């Protein structure tokens, strides 16, 4: 196949490639440092990356991929039991880390190599690697059992990044600012490998902060990638921060992913900046499936249309395709295309269960599709599809309605068994004013007026905060199982 990074394997120049705080590398410097990493890992099957939000992680990932070796990004916040499982399952020959990083006990039995971002070595030629050769093994946080390693081939990375370039008009002239973790596909594949494949540059904040976003977008950055918790903080800060509002107004593209961005935050950001946040939809196993297009109609609440090369369908519980795309009928999303993973490492059973006989991947995500093809996610099949009173109800739209209430700061919706309804709708609320939370009847009426009476919460529970994972997703199983 062609190189994943033509700007590095061709004639790398002195244009900016990576910047983490005050530390930066040009394309020529990155090519040399990646070559040094390639020399360290050559001939190995898999190597682990201690994936801190640092320059070393980005250099290590590029060097490993250029060498045709498989990278296994490790979350530095993983517990020892989870880390031990991942290491036992993936059996890395080496762990790459920044000099001075202290590694936890499970890694002490794995040979270590420090990444020197100023080292030099010949740039490996990754064009010798095959399309289906594994590039990454990314571990998914399983809802039951230990995490599974999704094997992501080189063609999936190339297909996704090229499809996003088409959808977002993404070029080498773009400068991306982000502050995402680098052990997941959002921060690593889209946020680091994406700019480098285009020949552009990325400025990583290290730690997200609205001041950093404002600073970078007002000094040449053109795009910002974030998760909903980041955009929520931006929306909260905007009324008092004119510099932030002006910086966002000047951005070419604002993208949110990893979870649904509440409509309330969409509206507050647009009102303050005149810019609309673009949403896209993907998974570890599929990379990116859909996106709102940069040249399309911005529509809050949708994740856009299938990306070039991606086939997408909605199916009923019996596996039959949804009869009509009417914006109301809920079905499970299934996808096919070059963006898909090849399977779960060492888990042929789980791999077989994830696909239909004719090759469609079962995402477990529930959605409706509008007549024009736009997809609206309503939640996960396991936790967000509520069957109440004969209706199939997506938790997402109820959460958006609740967030429209001024007394609600955060909201999550789940279902629980009910002898009469099958399942009753439960709202978990973090109130704006803990001393005076909105009442259950008030919130039920608020939802019923905006959506429909059968979508109103029957039970309301109040919390100080919602449990979230590292990517900002609400951990609903922690709510349900308490």
Automatic annotation (TrEMBL):
Gene3D superfamilies linked to this entry: 3.30.300.30, N-terminal domain of ligase-like
Residues annotated as domain AMP-dependent synthetase/ligase: 12-345
Transmembrane portions of the chain: none
Pfam families for the chain: AMP-binding (PF00501), AMP-binding_C (PF13193)
UniProt superkingdom: Bacteria
Domain AMP-binding enzyme C-terminal: from-to ranges: 397-473
Stored InterPro entries: AMP-bd_C, AMP-bd_C_sf, AMP-binding_CS, AMP-dep_synth/lig_dom, ANL_N_sf
Family: Belongs to the ATP-dependent AMP-binding enzyme family.
PANTHER family noted in UniProt: ACYL-COA SYNTHETASE, ACYL-COA SYNTHETASE FAMILY MEMBER 3
Protein name, as recorded: Acyl-CoA synthetase
């Amino acid at each position: 196949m062609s190189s994943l990074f033509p700007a590095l394997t061709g004639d790398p120049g002195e244009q900016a490639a990576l910047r983490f705080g005050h530390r930066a590398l040009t394309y020529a410097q990155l090519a040399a440092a990646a070559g040094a990493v390639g020399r360290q890992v050559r001939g190995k099957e898999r190597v682990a990356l201690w994936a801190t939000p640092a320059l070393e992680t980005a250099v290590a990932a590029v060097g490993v991929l250029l060498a045709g070796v498989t990278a296994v990004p490790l979350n530095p916040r993983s517990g020892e039991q989870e880390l031990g499982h991942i290491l036992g399952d993936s059996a890395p020959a080496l762990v790459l880390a920044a000099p001075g990083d202290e590694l936890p006990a499970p890694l002490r039995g794995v040979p270590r190599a420090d990444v020197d971002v100023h080292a030099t070595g010949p740039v490996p030629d990754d064009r010798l690697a095959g399309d289906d050769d594994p590039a990454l093994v990314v571990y998914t946080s399983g809802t039951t059992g230990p995490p599974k390693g999704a094997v992501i081939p080189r063609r999936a990375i190339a297909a996704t990044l090229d499809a996003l370039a088409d959808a977002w008009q993404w070029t080498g002239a773009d400068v991306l600012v982000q502050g995402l973790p680098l052990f997941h596909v959002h921060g690593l594949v889209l946020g680091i490998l994406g700019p480098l494949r285009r020949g552009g540059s990325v400025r990583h904040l290290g730690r997200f902060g609205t001041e950093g976003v404002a600073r970078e977008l007002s000094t040449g950055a053109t795009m910002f990638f974030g998760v909903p918790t980041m955009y929520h903080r931006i929306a909260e800060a905007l009324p008092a921060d004119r510099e932030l509002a002006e910086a966002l107004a000047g951005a070419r593209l604002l993208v949110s992913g990893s979870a649904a961005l509440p409509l309330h935050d969409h509206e507050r950001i647009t009102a303050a900046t005149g810019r609309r946040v673009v949403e896209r939809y993907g998974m570890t196993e599929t990379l990116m499936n859909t996106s709102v297009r940069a040249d399309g109609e911005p529509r809050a609440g949708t994740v856009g249309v299938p990306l070039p090369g991606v086939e997408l369908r909605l199916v009923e519980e019996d596996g039959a395709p949804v009869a009509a795309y009417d914006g109301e009928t809920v079905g499970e999303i299934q996808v096919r295309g070059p963006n898909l993973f090849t399977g779960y490492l060492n888990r042929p059973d789980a791999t077989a269960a994830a696909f239909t006989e004719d090759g469609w991947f079962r995402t477990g995500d529930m959605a409706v599709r509008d007549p024009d093809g736009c997809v609206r996610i309503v939640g996960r099949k396991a936790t967000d599809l509520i069957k109440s009173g004969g209706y199939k109800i997506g938790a997402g739209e109820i959460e958006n309605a609740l967030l429209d209430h001024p007394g609600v700061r955060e909201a999550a919706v789940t279902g629980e068994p009910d002898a009469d309804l099958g399942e009753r709708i439960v709202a978990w609320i973090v109130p704006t004013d803990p001393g005076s939370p909105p009442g259950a009847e008030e919130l039920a009426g608020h939802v019923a007026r905006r959506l429909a009476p059968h979508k109103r919460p029957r039970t309301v529970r109040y919390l100080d905060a919602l449990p979230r994972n590292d990517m900002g997703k609400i951990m609903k199983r922690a709510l349900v199982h308490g």
